[in-house]
Structure formats: structure tokens, C-alpha cells
Here is the input.
Amino acid sequence: MEDYPRSLMEFENRFGTVQGCQDYLFRVRWPDGFICPRCQGKETIAVRDSLFHCKGCRKQISVTAGTIFHRSHLPLPVWFRAIWWVTSQKNGASALGLKRVFGLGSYETAWLMLHKLRRAMVRPGRDRLSGVIEVDETYIGGLEEGLRGRQMERKTLVVIAAQVDGKRIGRIRMQQIPDASSTSLHSFIRSAIEPGSIVHTDGWDGYNGIEADGYRRKVTILKNCKKPANELMPRIHRVASLLKRWLMGTHQGAVSHAHLDYYLDEYTFRFNRRLSSHRGKLFYRLLQQAAQVGHTEYQGIIKHVRDLKQGKHNR
Here is the structure.
């Protein structure tokens, strides 16, 4: 049975101490008992509350080792409160907002916390979308004079997949891509959508040939059509509109292209869980994934940019 706080009062009662957070993190990370991340051994000796000595490889493993909390100078209760706050905000959280609410010493500390959490918002081995999926691209950035069609310079191109759930929008996937070529679009579709699904696109040539990968394609020609695009492919255009509103509202449009994919991950995490009945469940899910992602230093985050040119899109 999933164990998560149902209210802020319950949260504070359970996670107001380091010990309370360590005990919960242990249960989330090892629900069936300790397993050494180095040798997979199960026999251990407790050195202290959060440190274990593995009898197999004879290494000492802390409850935070191999998680985003490893080597953090911030205590676990601060991290837990940040996760609760981030998952409780309907429109997301900015680094400036996190700094102000928690009284953090610098903007960089808040920025680093949020980026570590964004890296935990993609569940390892998550399922691909299936069924009928609308797919299209949208630009993130301002208007550029003299460019037509799918050309871009200062703007960046994002491809979105939205699952059809009756008249509603099901789950989504999105990703920044270098261009609208078949190489980029086919790579995204293969990583985001199960073969056998119906991929609903416009008439762009970049989607041609996707049938060879095991997909069925439904084409809607938008050019010169009497109906507007947002009626012919309503889900994808709704998601694109909401994404841009979120980037401009919560983040004031101040998102660099280098880190945009991680903001897309956050938006996807929130959107796909928008109907969750308890905010505490989002807290639980994010903490689960934070225990699996691993530790990343500040320098690694500011220097790391997903390699768009080499087509390394699978996540």
C-alpha cells in the first residue's frame, strides 16, 4: 500500500525531523528491505541510523547515497518540504519563489534544487504512449522576421505527443528537437509511442515513412482547410498553448534552450498527474524517483546540455 501524507499537518508531523525523513526515504528506496546498490547484497549491519555496512562488498552505504540528496549541505527536512511545496503548486515553482519561501541563502541554491528535482521527474523505464496519439511541433520563443514554415534561429522547436482519451487529453510527451526532419521526428516517435499506435499528424513530409517503424499514420491536411487547426487537432494545440502560458507565467519566459528539456519534463510530470486526488501522492512519486536518479553536481548541471545534434533523444 502506498504510504504518503494526506495533508500539510500530517506532512509536518511526519517529516519535521531528520530521523523521520531518513526512515521514510529508506522505506521508499528499499520497500522490501535493504539491497546494496553496489553488489545487490541484502546482508548488512547498521552502523548508525542512516549508514549501513554491506557484508557482501564491505562498503558503507548511506540512505542518501545514489539519490539526488547525496552530499547536499541542506538537511533532508528542507528537501522534503521543497518537494511538498513544488508538487503542491498548481502552476509550478520558480527558483526565485523557492528562495523566498524557504529563506535560502542564494538564488543559485534554489535553482540547483529545482533542477535536481526536474531530473527526477522522468520515471526510469516509463511506458510509452499508446492508442491514438496526436503529434505536432511548436516553437518556443519570440517571432522572427523573414523566416517561414519550420525554419528557426532564436526560437527552438519542441515536438509534442498527446494521447487521445475520448474528448479529453490523456498522457503527453514532449521534447526539444534540432529540426523538423524525419530523423528528429521519427526518433521522438519511437521513444515516446508504442508501435501499433495510430499517429495523427498534419501533412508535413517529416512524418512520411513512420509506417516502416510499425505505426499507423492518420494525416490531416491543415493548409487551406476551412476548419482551424485547433479544431482538427485540438489536443496537441491545447497542450502547446498551455505549455507556453506556463513558461511565460511561472518562469517569465526566462528559460534557456540549453535547459529547456528539463522544464518540459516538469510540465509533463505535472500534466500527466493533474487529476491526482491527493497532492501527497505527487510528493510520494517524486520522492520515489529522486531516490533512483543519482547525484549530480552543480557544475555538471550548468554544463550539461542534451545533445540535440547527435539525436540522443531517448529518455
Remarks:
- Residues 142-153, 305-315 have pLDDT under 50 and may be disordered.
- The chain has eleven helices and eight strands.
